[in-house]
Amino acid sequence: MRVLVTGAAGFIGAHVCERLLSRGDTVVGLDALDAAPGDVALRRSRLQRLSGARGFTFLAGDITDAARLGEAFSAARPEGVVHLAARVGVRAPDAEAPAYADTNVTGFVRVLEACREARVQHLVYASSSSVYGAATPAPFREDAPVDQPLNLYGATKRANELMAHAYSHLHRLPTSGLRFFTVYGPWGRPDMAPLLFLRALAKGEPLRLHGDGRMRRDFTFVDDVAEAVLRVLDRPPSGSPPHRLLNVGHGEPVALGDFVGLLERHWGTKARVTSVPSAPAEMVSTWADTSRLEAVTGFRPRVSVDAGVARLVAWYREWSATSR
Ligand code: NAD
């Protein structure tokens, strides 16, 4: 398959590209790289690992730049598009709200338009567990009401789902929205709890634990997430409209305090935990019902948190020894 992956230098994007390439697909990766906030060196390292692979082309560019996006579509002539580029994180400073809207809303419409024009066979895009609000019954099901997001990021992701539905309805563009739940693993995001915790533990610095450690997250290992993305990509929806939403989570919420305990055990030292208040943008608990994903793909995330943390720690040991 010829696939265009946006956000290819990102955490999930790099893992998805690696899998697509290893099964022989032709991949064009698009990413704003140093024009987007975040750890640019890490993005470059992820790209470096992909650069030698047969069938991979990388283009630096912003999804809100229609001309550059058009070049990426021309280069890729994609049958499938995996759209992962986004402004990420639930605790964005208010001043960044317009930038979130630019990338996550305007950028998404540009991707939809390009997919329509190119008659793409399937657009798989990243949504988020953040679309669920504080009142959603657990485990979260895709048919639960999602009109009370706790943060702007979640609101932009919900907007994506609604816009994709409209495009699927109007233009019969097959679209699948994946609601990812707290993805972690090697080459992960330095702004997210797993790597923030691990870095503090490794450096003997205070580990800032939001809430009292009882907040729960449905931690989902990145290999499982990449597997789910490929399986969904291979199965475009055929309903009317051809649009679907799928949770991609492990289905087993873990208290943050217990997650820290696993990190301590695998790293081999105790953390210096300091409690900080949880932010109003934070959900108390997330928990995916994955039966719809399983019905569509025959797959559900299966890497246990213990095994996943072991692999995260093993990667971090090697990476921190060689990179800084
Ligand atoms: P990431 O930040 O590692 O990757 C996103 C990539 O998008 C980055 O490489 C960045 O450079 C790129 N990007 C940002 N703005 C861009 C723009 N305007 N044009 C082009 N590229 C741009 O994040 P990730 O964790 O890999 O997340 C991938 C997707 O999954 C995102 O849409 C995110 O919202 C979603 N998601 C992730 C998680 C998670 O736990 N990691 C959970 C829910 C949803």
UniProtKB/TrEMBL annotation:
Domain NAD-dependent epimerase/dehydratase: 3-249
InterPro entries linked to this entry: Epimerase_deHydtase (IPR001509), NAD(P)-bd_dom_sf (IPR036291)
UniProt xrefs under Gene3D superfamilies: NAD(P)-binding Rossmann-like Domain (3.40.50.720)
Pfam families assigned to the protein according to its UniProt record, in alphabetical order: Epimerase
SUPFAM superfamilies per UniProt: NAD(P)-binding Rossmann-fold domains (SSF51735)
Superkingdom as given in the UniProt entry: Bacteria
Keywords: NAD
PANTHER family xref list: EPIMERASE-RELATED
Entry protein name: NAD-dependent epimerase/dehydratase
Organism name: Corallococcus coralloides (strain ATCC 25202 / DSM 2259 / NBRC 100086 / M2) (Myxococcus coralloides)
